[in-house]
Each structure stands twice: as structure tokens, then as C-alpha cells.
Amino acid sequence: MSEQSEPTSKRTDGKAYWRATIRLTVTLLVIWFAVSYGAGILLRDTLDQFSVGGAPMGFWFAQQGAIYVFLILIVVYCIGMNRIARKHGVEG
Amino acid sequence: MDQTFWTYLFVGLSFATYVGIAIWARAGSTNDFYVAGHDVHPVVNGMATAADWMSAASFLSMAGLIAFLGYGGSVYLMGWTGGYVLLALLLAPFLREFGKFTVPDFVGDRYYSTFARIVAVVCTLFVSFTYIAGQMKGVGVAFSGFLGVPFDIGIWIGMAIVFVYATFGGMKGVTYTQVAQYCVMIFAYTVPAIFISLIITDNPIPQLGFISNAAGEDISMLEKLNTVVTDLGFAAYTETDKSMFDVFAITGALMFGTAGLPHVIVRFFTVSSAKAARVSAGWALFFIALLYTTAPAVGAFARLNFVQTVNEATYISDDEDYASRAAEIEAAGGKPVPEWYKDWEKTDLLQYEDKNGDGIMQYRGPAAPDGLENEVTPNRDIFVLANPQIAKLPGWVIGLVVAGGLAAALSTAAGLLMVISSAVSHDLCRRTLFKNMDDKTELRVARLAAAAAVFAAGLLGISADKLGFVAQVVAFAFGLAAASLFPIIFLGIFWTRMNREGAITAMLVGLVTTFSYIYYFKFGGGTPDQYFLGVSPEGIGFVVMFLSLIVGAVVSLITPPPPQDVIDLVEDIRVPGTRKPHGSAEGGIAPDALHPAE
């Protein structure tokens, strides 16, 4: 219904592109904070009641899990940014 | 000796490879020299970044450090990897879109000020020189410990190799050598780790062995480790005695420090576009994570193995014949000191003092329930170094580990040298002092600066060992990068209103506060009960970073906004492909840097 507000395919819409970028960045940084400072430090004692294999969960996040999630976050960011760039007609 | 032969062979072969790559990758222009022509493939750059990033400390000391600190070691694991998320999301793509050569370049142009540029040069040089001293010391230690070469000579040999590929190849030479160094490093790290994992947990993958049961038992490896160490009076492995806020602050200082370190940032200037910079940051973290997820496993395995084989073992002195005496002890139902222990004792990385005169090695923590005193003092570096022998691997694996340690130290040193030389030749000479210098002269000055930096770093490495302050000064590098460089680069991209006055104040506040705090507690006689909010010097950069952000923002708001040119520049670098030259500050921009990969 809002076809008019959709940018036409080839025109660069810098402002909208930047807003979408910020939204994606903030979302990913919230997760970044949650798995490292959250699960690995602040909530460690609570999470340590559960376990990942033979490791207490909070400890596991601090020494392994956070790193895996960091990697996934960057991959999601790359894919997300490509999508945003296509949508707003921004090159690469 | 057989093992020495292998060590010489691997070190010699790897050095020959580095020099060979340097000859192949000669730099023909300043663009080649500073940023490897802006055309490094994202995967290649990711690998080079990983080698650049992982230093002698990551390779040799980190696993051992974690082995001692247990959960407390997590600050390094999260801190030194989480920074790459910040780099990928907040800095790398935008700085690449900005499209120049150095970090002070960005600061000087974004804040339209020569003074800001100079302050950034000072921060860059300070951070890089403190960091490089540790690398050079690592090179000296590896040479003197394994090849029988005196410490000072070892440093000069290392410097000579770096000299060849950094001066001739510049960033281009450094990039491709770092790729080779990464391969040597990761192979040397994972091979012993796999075998240790098999011994301790029956699982060949260290990351999985870490969460598996101890070999042949019904109890998880970590649970067993907790029991074993608490029985000896140490803190439980999965716990820490540091306050939660301090752990939080140190992790923060290491994360934001990583993102603000100039030698890491500049690696993302070498790829072809903002998109490639994002992809490349992902690859860098992937290659780093291979080692960083192995390290905590190696740390835990090594700690468990150390306690099990060394504690309560019967000592065999150097005057006795090891083999026959060991057989005798075993026949009597005792446990002889392991052979690898005797081998490494010579290097002073292990010390045994028989305090109660019973000839048995008691390894105890501060709260030992049986009241016995500790008699064994291991250096943390021993864990990675002795791993191959503990796993009973052949002599050539040890040679490989030595070559890996040298690769780790040299690759990081070379990356730092490039940052130091470009800060001097580009930011200080070309952009500040001699503005009409031509490209060819600048290239010559850059080579000269690289050579001088190599020399200075060598001297620093030698004196750093004599002064013994290396471990203390690394806190400076991360603290200063987090508190002085990260805030102004971040605000420079995400807040157009940030102006020159705000940036200069923020940088100076970060620099002075962090420096004074660390100096006071490391050298000025400060005691832990005086810590601000309980934050140790390692973590203060994180706290000061917020101060610096706030001060920078407040000062910006009460002083005039930046010129329209600069606001346009910031808006351009946010959106790929819209970058245009802006204003007089851009006079010195390299023409081919303006429209990358088009």
C-alpha cells in the first residue's frame, strides 16, 4: 500500500539507508552485550546452575559461547548490510 | 641434539619464506606501502589481521594465564574477541569508506585540525611502542631459550628479518608475510592441543574436550579439575576472586581497546571497499577464534595434567640418572617427576624448592587444607611450550611450536612498525611539516621511518627486558586506545555535531587520566585499596572511556558546530559509494583512494 514511500529501485536513499544501518547495529550490539557482559559476567552465577556439556553455563559463555556468538553477529551484520544496501539502492 | 635440529630447520625455513615473500611483494608507491594498494582480498586480510593481532602473548602466555586464573582468564577471551564486533559494526567499514592511510589521517581531517592530528599521532606512537616492546622481548626469549642464541642477538636477528620485509614491502610485504605467519602459528598451536585433548578427555577436538568427561571417567573434565585444585587449596577453576565490576571493566577496556588499536584498524584500510571491510572483520574473528577457543581448553587440560603428574611426585635431582631412578621409584609404587619437567627445569620456567626435605614435590595453593607449603612454582609460559612433550609428541613438533611463537611475535611487531612509520612519514612529515612533499619522497621517508622504528623497537626490547616492565605496560596500550582513540573515532562517525574542540578535549582527558591512573598504581606506589570504584589499572580505560565520551560531547555542544564540509564528509562515509572530496583539509588525499574499487 505504501508504494510511493518505497524508494525507486536505482535511486540512492542515504538517510533511510543510515536509519536502517543504525537499527541493525543497535540490535546486534544488544545481543553482543547480552552474551558477553550479560551471560558471561553479570548473570554468571544464575546461569552456572545449568550446564553446557560438562561446563557450567555462565563459565562456558565467558570462555567459549560468547566468541561463537560474536562470530555469528558479524556474519549476520554482513548479510543484513547487503540487504539494506540493495533495498536502498546503495552500492556495495 | 635431534630436537635442536628440528627447531633450527623450522625457524630457518619460516624465516626464508618471510624474506622470499618480501622480495616478491615489493612496494612501488605510498599507496602500496601504507595500505597494500587497497586491494587485499577480504579473506587474506582476515588472516593477516589474525596474525597481526595474535602476539607472542596470545600464542605463548594466554593458555597458561587462563590455566592459572580459571574463570578470571575469561576477560582476555571475551575482551580480545568482542572488540572485533565493535570494529566490524562501528569502525572498520566507515574508516575504509573514508579511504585514506592512517588513524591520525581520519582524526586530522574529521576534526579539521593539525593539533588533533598531532595528538592522535602521539597516542598512536605511545600505544604502538608500549606494545612492540613486549613483542621484541618475546623474540629474544624464544631465541635464547631454544636456539642457544644470546637474548640481545636474538632480538637483532628478529629485527633484521622484520627490517627486510617491512622496509621493502611496506604494508604489502607485511600483509603477505602475516598470512604465512598465521599458517605457521595455527598449525603449531592446534596440533599439540589435539593430542593433549585426546589424552585428557578422549576427544580429539579441544573445544569439545573442554566440555566432555575426563578420559575414562564418569565426571566432567572441568568438575574434576575443580575438585583437584580446591583439594590443594587453590580457588575453584570456574570461579574468581576478582569483583564482578572489575571483571566487567577489564573486559570492557580490552574490548574497546582492541577496537581502538591503530595497528588493527589500519588493516581494514587495505581492502577494496566498506563491504569488504565488514566481510574481512568476520574472517579475522574466525581465524582468531580458532586459536582463542582452543586456548581455554589447552589451559584447563594443562592445569589438570600439571597437578596430576607433578604433585606428590618424587623428585629426581640432576646428579642422578633419570631413567634408572624413575624405574626404581615406580617399582617402589611411587610417582617419578615427569621427564618433560626435568627438560624444562633448565630454562628456569619451573622451580622446585624442597621446603620440608621429604624429596616429594608438594604443589599447594594458598589455602591448602593439609597446611603444607607450596614447593613448585611454574611460569605460565611453560604450559604451551611443554605441551608437545607432555603429549609425547616427536621432537619436530617442538621445533614447530618455537617457529610458531616467533611467527606470532614477528607478525605483530611488523604490523606495529607499519603504524609507527606511517604516523611519522605520512601524518607528521607529509600532512603537517612538509605539505608539498611529493609521493616519491614520501615513500623514501616512509622506508627510512620504518628502518628507524625497527631499530628503536630493538633497543626498546633489549632495555625492556632489563627493566622488566613489559607486563605492566601492556595495560597502557589497551587503556589508552580505549580511552583516547576509540571515543573520538566513534563519535566522529556517528555524531555529526562532534567538533574539533570536543575531540581534542576528549583525547587529552582520555590520555592524561588513563596514563596517570595506571602510572600511579603500577609505578607510583598506589595500593589496591585506593582503586577508584574497585577498578584495577587494567580496567580503568573502560571507565575513562565514558568520561572521555561525555566530556567530548559536552565541550562540542558549547562550542561552534563543525563546518558544513565536515558534516558532508561524515554523511558521505556513512553511505558507501557517495564519498566526494570535501574542503581544504582534503588537499593531501591520494587520488586513487577517493573512488575505491570502481
Mean of residue pLDDT values of chain A:
85
As laid out across the biggest beta sheet of chain B, the strand order is 1-3
Low-pLDDT windows of residues of chain B? 587-598
Largest interface: A-B, 42 and 52 residues
The gist of it:
The complex is a heterodimer of chains A (92) and B (598). Chain A is elongated, with a radius of gyration of 18 Å.
Task: Write up this protein.
Chain A has 92 residues and is mainly α. Chain A has three helices and two strands, in the order ααββα. In chain A, strand 1 (51-52) and strand 2 (55-56) form a beta hairpin. The longest helix of chain A has 31 residues, at 57-87. Chain A is elongated and about 50 Å long. With 598 residues, chain B is mainly alpha-helical. Chain B is 70% helix and 2% strand. Chain B is built from 24 helices and four strands. A two-stranded antiparallel sheet of chain B has the order 1-3. Chains A and B meet through helix 1, strand 1, strand 2 and helix 3 of A and helix 5, helix 10, helix 11 and helix 13 of B.
